[in-house]
Sequence to fold (241 residues):
Amino acid sequence: MRSTVIKKSTSTIEYSENIQISNVRISDRIYELITQEIIEGTIRYGDRLNIKEIAQRLQVSPMPVRDAIKRLEHEGIVVVKPQSTCYVRMPTQKSMIDAFELRYILEISSIEKIYPMVRLEDLKDMKYFLDRMEELVPSKYHPDTMKEYVKYDQLFHREICVLAGNEYLLRSYKYATLHLNISLTFNAGAEPDMQQVESDHRLLFKYLNQNSEQCVAVLRRHLNTCKRNMISGEVFKSLPT
Fold:
C-alpha cells in the first residue's frame, strides 16, 4: 500500500513505493508532495509547517521549500507569519460547502462523460481502490481504520475525474480536495453509514462497468448523502461561518 510519508534520500525526494522525484524544478516537486499529504489527511488543517525541518528531512536547501510554501500561501492553503512560521489554514463552513459543491460538479460532469464508453480495462485502478476499501471497511465506524480507508476513498473518487481525460478538470478537482480533503469530510461530519457507503461504491463500479446511466444517479445520491453528513457534524458546526 502507498505511504504518503516523505522519506529521506541521498539524491532525490521520494515516496515509498519507489516513486522518485528528480531535482528538476524541485520546488514544484515539494509543492506536489505537500499538497498530496494535505489531500490525504497526513498533514491536517491547522498543522504547522516548519521550512527548516522540511528541508532537512528532504535533504534540500530551504529555498525550494520556501518557494513551495509561497505558492501554497498564494493559493490560500497556508498562512505565513514572520520568522518563516506557517500553518495550514483552517477551513470555514462556507469554504467547505463551496469546495464540496465544486467537487460535486466535477465528479458528476466526469461520470456523465465516461460512462457510455468506459471499458473494464480502464477501471482496473478503480477496482483496486474498491477492493482495498472493502478490506478496510469496519463493521462499525472505528477511527483506527478510517485513515487508511479514506485514502482509498479519495483515490476511488479521483479516478472518476482521471478517466475523463481532461487536464484542467483534474487540476480543478485537486484544488477542491486541497480545500476539502476527504479525511476532514469524514471527521467533521456525522458518523457515516459505512455499509451504505460500501454499497454505493460497489454499485457505482458495477454500473460503470455495464456502461449504465444508473451510475450517475448512484453518484448523485452518494455525494448528497456525504454533504448532509458533513454539515450535520459537530466539528463542522464549530467552524467559523
Summary: Residues 103 and 173 are 6 Å apart (CA to CA). The longest helix spans residues 93-114.
